[in-house]
């Protein structure tokens, strides 16, 4: 019998004017929240760099998002180390 966490959700979204159907285990509300963030970041980057084509815009948005993720990951790791020392 399939575990409840194995349930696949299909969510249709729009990112920077393009439609995508995202299939995965995450709840649709989570997917939509992520999509709103990505769309907002892409539009902000385009506003600052109007000559970027969509591919470069998407790649730079992904690089910025992963950079922020890695900074947060490092920060959490450092906080965990501090807790272990105290």
UniProtKB/TrEMBL annotation:
Protein's UniProt keywords contain Cell division: yes
Gene3D superfamilies per UniProt: 6.10.250.790
Coiled coil stretches, renumbered: none
Keywords from the named record: Cell cycle, Cell division, Cytoplasm, Septation
GO biological process, one term: cell division
Subcellular location: Cytoplasm
Key word Transferase present: no
Function: Activator of cell division through the inhibition of FtsZ GTPase activity, therefore promoting FtsZ assembly into bundles of protofilaments necessary for the formation of the division Z ring. It is recruited early at mid-cell but it is not essential for cell division.
Assembly and binders: Homodimer. Interacts with FtsZ.
Protein name in UniProt: Cell division protein ZapA
Species of the source: Alkalicoccobacillus gibsonii
Name of the gene this protein is made from: zapA
């Amino acid at each position: 019998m399939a575990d409840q966490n194995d349930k696949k959700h299909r969510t249709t979204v729009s990112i920077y004017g393009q439609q995508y159907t995202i299939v995965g285990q995450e709840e649709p509300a989570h997917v939509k929240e992520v999509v709103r963030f990505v769309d907002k970041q892409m539009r902000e980057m385009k506003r600052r760099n109007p000559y970027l084509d969509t591919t470069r815009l998407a790649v730079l948005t992904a690089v910025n998002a992963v950079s922020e993720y890695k900074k947060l990951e490092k920060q959490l790791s450092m906080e965990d180390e501090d807790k272990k020392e105290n």
